[in-house]
Amino acid sequence: MTYFRIIKLIIDILFGLLGAVYFHFIVFSIIGLFKKRTYPKTDKRYRYGLIIPARNEESVVPLLIESIQKNDYPQDKLQIFVIAHNCTDRTAEIARRYDGVAVYEYNNPEENTMGYAFRHLFKCIERDYGTASFDGFFLFNADNILDKDYIARMNDAYDFYGKECVITSFRNSKNFGANLMSGLYGMYFTVGCRLESRGRTYKGCSTRVQGTGYLINPEIVKDGWKYVSLAEDWEFTADQVLAEDRIRYCDDAIFYDEQPTTFRIMWRQRIRWSRGHLLVFYSRFRDMIRELFSRKTKYRGSVYDITANILPIGLFIVTLQVLQLALYFTAPLIDKTVTLYDVFIGSGPFSFLTGAFLPTWIISTGFSTVMTFLSAIIIFAVEKERIKGVSFGMKALISVFWPLFLAIQIPIDVVAFFSRNLGWKPIPHSDKTTFENVNER
Fold this sequence. Notes:
Blueprint: H1 3-21, H2 23-34, E1 48-54, H3 61-69, E2 78-85, H4 91-95, E3 101-106, H5 114-128, E4 136-139, E5 145-146, H6 150-160, E6 166-173, H7 180-202, E7 214-216, H8 232-242, E8 247-257, H9 263-292, H10 300-310, H11 313-329, H12 331-334, H13 340-344, H14 352-382, H15 392-407, H16 409-418, H17 435-440
Parallel strand pairs: 1-2, 1-4, 2-3, 6-8
Antiparallel strand pairs: 4-7, 5-8, 6-7
Helix pairs in contact: 1-11, 2-7, 7-15, 8-9, 8-10, 9-10, 9-16, 11-16, 14-15
């Protein structure tokens, strides 16, 4: 076997193994298209605290408060908490205008991620109310709006699992059809719910929380909130699975949030997400592997799935490509009859450009592009009742650019790998969608 054949075989095997790690994603996606877990309605009405972190959110926090207070759920069972975190506007003042809303303020520029807001607020709740006095806590973002029966449907799921599971929900978009960027974001979260969370919950595998819109048991915060990194949702998810606590999904509970509308904000936010995801990989991967092979592990499938989820796939792909390039560079050292021209420009079957690399890259990229394009079309078809206000032309644009939106995760991962001191910067929110608007759709 020639040197070039050995290189190609090694790279093909490594890419094949990487693909095998994620094969179950396809299985869950197919299941999620056709099946979902439903929950019987319960007469029990649990008492909930509703957590709203807000950083300069004076324009949208009233809309979330109003959507909670107009929800089809007994208001005497709900206590809204707003934490105005490093605010320079009137967020706290405006939130205090609403009856039944407890408002706290916390200012510390050195502690600027959302996790710090949660940590401070849960300390205040423990001091003033006692976290054990609640049956559960909802965690939101200030720009969220709730469907009219959101709390009731989450309550059904929470009761179904005996209050022992974290419950997450369907993340819809207030401004899905505003422009191409917001539409791509809307597709991102809809895909996450329909092709990721639905299938996992239906088959009994733990899913993950996606930043906001989830319900937790007060036992989780009895000693305070621990997650303050750039990706507190990934940290939280990994630790729940390590503790063999399951995360379930309620497809009938719908909330809406506002998505970025510019490339600049998208790039900044996704680098922060990627960096946070990488930090979770650094801090949790060893524990996940240990748990995966422990004889005492009860939910091995969930551990494997979340372990695969926290892998920095973009960096792995780049690393394999760089490894292939480096091995090709060494060819003239192994075989004196081969020159660098033969390796990179020549027309032989194992030339990096014309033989081994370029044709393989074209085939694999073309296949993945077609499949992701089709996935967007499928999502628009199966979620047509929930994706409203998006024109046919915008749907076509979103479908065309959806593969690119996913593909740029690779350079984003590379940039995030070399980034430091990113911090959490607020995403500007100005959409004026109200409770009435989303419940008329």
